[in-house]
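Record type: ASSEMBLY
Status: queued
Input:
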Amino acid sequence: MNAADRAPSLWARFLAMHDAVSRVAGTIVGVPDYENYLQRFKAMHPGETPLSRNEFIKDRMDVKTKQRGCC
Amino acid sequence: MPKVVKNLIFVAIAIVGTICLGFIAVNRGEPINALWILTAAVSTYIIAYRFYARFIAYRVLSLNAARITPAVRHNDGQDYVPTNKYVVYGHHFAAIAGAGPLAGPVLAAQMGYLPSMIWILAGAVFAGAVQDFVILVLSSRRDGRSLGMMIKQELGDVPGVVALVGLVMIMTILLSALALIVVKALAQSPWGAFTLLCTVPIALVMGVYMRFLRPGKVLEVSIIGFALLMVAVVGGGWVARDATIAPHFTFSATTITWGLIVYGFVASVLPVWLLLAPRDYISTFMKIGTLLVLAVAMVFVGPMMQMPAVTQFVDGTGPVFAGKLFPFLFITIACGAVSGFHALIASGTTPKLVENETHMPFIGYGAMLTESFVAIMALIAASIVDPGVYFAMNSPHAILGPTLDSASQVISGWGFNVTPETLMTWAKDVGETTIVARVGGAPTLAVGMASLFSKAIGGKEMMAFWYHFAILFEALFILTAIDAGTRVGSYMLRDLVAGVVPNINRSNKVLIYACSAAIVSFWGFLVYQGVTDPFGGINTLWPLFGISNQMLAAVALMTATAIIYKMKRERFAAVTMVPTAWLLVTTLVAGWQKAFDPNPALGFWALARKFARASAEGKILAPARTADEMQKVMMNNYLNAALTVFFMAFVVTILIYTVRACVIARQDPKPTVIEIGGVTAAGVAS
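Status: finished
Output:
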């Protein structure tokens, strides 16, 4: 039995859940979603190099004009 | 589930809601349990969502699942990202939920809980949620265009510019009202000041952590930030009890005002990732988390309403704010019922996230109903406090006099018995030196939340912790609103300047700093004015905020009306026209009274004249102590009158252009609306 056949460990499942919750929480709160960007970029611009995770987040933060702060 | 069963369920909900409302109506004499109000509210929301939102969605706007939304059309993985409808709902609610639904209902409780409750429910169902929902749909059909751009496109260039100027002004007044709430909550409170001061380094640490150590791990960094904040709340308690350190953190209202001004400017020009973004994350989590906990606590504890259903202050003599029930109740509760600001958000980031038109009722209408529920909870929190204590906290010193004795005498004279001992005990229990004249709504809400939470967990010993936790909760997202709002306001001002001055580079650093400084000075000046105001500041600023905010809502609804006419669906236009008419009546009457009413307690002009006459005779009226201060109070009130008149002119101008647009649309036999994705006579995407 190789690694692919073994059921995911408890820790792996916890990490996956944590990632999912983080992504949802992040979207609600307005954090840039890197995985999504990567997917879109690879589909739309095959062959080009996308921004790294750090670069992407820095870029999105700098560009952000927050329309939050309602009454 | 068969249709008959579904309909029966809704009939049952309607019956439950009606029984609750009936119970509330019949029991106006004795105290009732808050759960009646909560249940009535939730039943109302369910019925409204199921029937009215659907009506607007499918009969008026013809939402079409096949129409391509901007998120799907552009899908760039950055701004346009088709997102799950529950997540967009959460994002939209987090964006619209602020301190407004918390402050307004607390202030309005002076008239009793019943008028406020009715307005919060009816206003949200027929005006607020309609506005949010309709603007969301219309914006997404215009590729996610902002409200300002929609006004320009649908009504004309002149109203577009007028609207932009109005928006900048409204934004600054909002910021000043929020800032004043924080000032009044933190003045003379070493515990509160220490805790809030801690939030700045905590945010900086979070910002650096997220940027350099663990990018993107927002949940992780927010948990760390939250833990640090709890330490700050506890630490504040030690600071307050220590006789040597406490005086260093005991600031006057004026000092805190200056601190906020400096903070607002610095935070709005620093890079977003360093301060603004981490503050935003943690305040959003705390906001949503605390509101959930508050709802659960209310259901669990089932507190009794102590404030009467209706008090004598519907006649306009109230200490918290001047003015009769009509129109001022409807101005005081803005965000919990209807708020023009939400139209900015509904035409901002949210339309770029929605993946399907049929999600929009849930997101637009639903999120506003949730905010209305927050307002109901705030109303309940203010009403479960002893009314005598409520009035002690929310009346200014000018009315209560300088001592606990004078305060309790005045309040008992109104029919709400309270003793100086009660006031002193409450102050000790929440860890403050005094709770008298802590106007602005935040301390009252904190007292209500603290008494509720301590009944659920911890008992009386935890009351001080819960009180300061609640102050932190509200102040945290007010501060976030202040720095984000200053930034947005300065961008808007920059756009205005760039539109007028040719060839100016919008990224010019000097321009950026100048616009930030201008916005900060404007709201800072209003806050400073509020701090030195004879009637407590909130008395002046909150009505200005409510009037301007609801005028903005009227403008958004007017734009929607014009579009509905252009869609040739004017037979349904009552959906937007009726709330517009109501908002125009209340805001214009309130504006007129605030500007020109002969009673100096109500009208700005009258107050300015009173001080002008006294000054000419060489007299000094409180709270001015010198001839110079007399002049200042006079000038401030002339300015407030001018601002009010400006807003009235603003909304009437837009009204004129809207009527014009509707008349022109009527004359054309075919639809004249321009949407991205096209439209046929049936309003279906081509």
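Annotation: The first helix of chain B runs from residue 3 to 26.
Annotation: Residues 420 and 558 of chain B are 51 Å apart (CA to CA).
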